[in-house]
């Protein structure tokens, strides 16, 4: 089986509901997580009606008056939740050509006073647009996030099985559900012939990302082991799943975090997407949790070969810092305006020259 995949495999989630066929799904998942790092999920458990309801809100959300969007700007929020204007975000030091709202599942911030670790401030309440202007949006988005969250936990169990661990082999990385928060973004990539990147090459941070491509535009690309960019066009009725640096770290490179990027759409309509990022517990130090894998699974990793260095270099701190701190550093580098407001020490550390026009870090 070649590690230099030229397309992204399609897995059928409905197999997981059939005890006789679940093992087929697990076998396909094993291949996808070790060799590709990306997959399409067909027949997901999230209601298609709810997905369509959400998709219909997206253009309305971005069409809100600029001052309404700015009123919930991310810079208001120590939790990095809220609205980011076009060009406000950096990846690898370059400006991304996208506009977005970061929302999250409901959560009460556990950071109480300056003695508490900074990274506990990473999670907290979302900022929502005024209900009267987008009636029903908050409920639709929360309902969507809840369903995707549920599917992500089930997927973690199947991943554990695919990697030869007990079913609950990855559950030690999550806190009790009432203390967890997961993030979902609504993203608009405006068409552009000039912009270099919709979002530049990067890895995701956590275990699992579940992406809804919410318009028919191409643009998402994933990097194979020989460095080629492979298209992952939208397939109606599917999600795109990929695995993040935290999962790669705790599985000692068995699971593959794959670098990906989005090219700005050509033509005259925007591309929309809704990525869901499943978090792990903020206080978990990955380096302290050693998982044991069966020899036959480790052989599959060896057959694939080492993960080549790619263009993305983020999240190297998992070898020492709690997961929340690693994520916080990533967020600070991507959103210096939020950092300057709420994390002045980290801002100073990563941007000693002041607010970047082009950031120096990834
Ligand atoms: O918009 C997309 O299709 C992918 C976005 C992405 O990779 C990210 O925000 O991490
Ligand atoms: Fe990503």
Number of strands: 14
The SS-based structural class is alpha+beta
CATH architecture: Sandwich
What's the CATH H-level homologous superfamily? B-lactam Antibiotic, Isopenicillin N Synthase, Chain
* Small molecules bound in the structure, each named once: 2-oxoglutaric acid, fe (ii) ion
Share of helix among residues? Answer: 25-40%
Our count of domains comes out at 1
Describe the largest sheet: 8 strands, mixed
For this structure, the quaternary state is: single chain
Amount of beta strand = 15-25%
The value of Rg in angstroms is 19 Å
- Pattern of helices and strands: EHEHHEEEEHEEEEEEHEEHHHH
Number of helices: 9
Task: Name a few traits of the molecule.
362 residues; alpha+beta; 4-stranded antiparallel β-sheet; 28% helix; binds 2-oxoglutaric acid
List the helices and strands and how they pair.
Elements: E1 10-12, H1 22-36, E2 38-42, H2 48-62, H3 66-70, E3 82-84, E4 90-91, E5 94-95, E6 99-104, H4 137-162, E7 183-189, E8 199-202, E9 208-213, E10 220-223, E11 229-231, E12 239-243, H5 245-250, E13 260-262, E14 271-277, H6 295-304, H7 323-334, H8 336-342, H9 344-350
Parallel strand pairs: 1-2
Antiparallel strand pairs: 2-12, 3-6, 4-5, 6-7, 7-14, 8-13, 9-12, 9-14, 10-11, 10-13
Helix pairs in contact: 1-4, 2-4, 7-8, 8-9
The structure holds 2-oxoglutaric acid (AKG) and fe (ii) ion (FE2).
């Amino acid at each position: 089986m070649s590690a230099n995949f030229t397309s992204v495999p399609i897995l059928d989630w409905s197999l997981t509901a059939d005890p006789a066929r679940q093992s087929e799904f697990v076998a396909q998942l094993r291949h996808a997580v070790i060799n590709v790092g990306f997959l399409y999920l067909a027949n997901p458990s999230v209601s298609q009606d709810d997905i369509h309801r959400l998709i219909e809100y997206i253009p309305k959300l971005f069409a809100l008056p600029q001052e309404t969007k700015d009123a919930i700007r991310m810079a208001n929020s120590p939790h990095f939740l809220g609205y980011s204007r076009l060009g406000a975000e950096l990846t690898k030091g370059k400006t991304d050509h996208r506009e977005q709202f970061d929302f999250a599942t409901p959560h009460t911030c556990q950071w109480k006073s300056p003695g508490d670790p900074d990274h506990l401030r990473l999670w907290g309440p979302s900022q929502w647009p005024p209900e009267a202007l987008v009636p029903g949006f908050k409920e639709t988005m929360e309902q969507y996030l809840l369903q995707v969250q549920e599917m992500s936990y089930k997927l973690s169990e199947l991943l554990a099985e695919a990697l030869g661990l007990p079913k609950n082999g990855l559950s030690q990385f999550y806190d009790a559900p009432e203390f967890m928060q997961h993030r979902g973004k609504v993203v608009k990539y405006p068409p552009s012939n000039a912009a270099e990147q919709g979002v530049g090459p990067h890895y995701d941070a956590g275990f699992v990302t579940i992406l809804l491509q919410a318009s028919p535009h191409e643009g998402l690309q994933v990097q194979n082991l020989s460095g080629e960019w492979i298209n992952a066009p939208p397939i109606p009725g599917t999600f795109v799943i990929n695995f993040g640096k935290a999962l790669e770290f705790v599985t000692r490179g068995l699971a593959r975090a794959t670098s990906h990027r989005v090219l700005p759409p050509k033509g005259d309509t925007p591309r929309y997407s809704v990525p869901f990022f499943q978090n792990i517990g903020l206080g978990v130090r990955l380096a302290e949790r050693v998982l044991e894998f069966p020899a036959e699974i480790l052989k599959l990793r060896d057959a694939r070969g080492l993960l080549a260095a790619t263009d993305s270099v983020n999240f190297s701190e998992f070898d020492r810092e709690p997961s929340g701190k690693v994520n916080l550093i990533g967020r600070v580098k991507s959103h210096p305006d939020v950092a300057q407001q709420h994390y002045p020490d980290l801002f100073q550390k990563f941007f000693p020259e002041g607010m970047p026009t082009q950031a120096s870090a990834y």
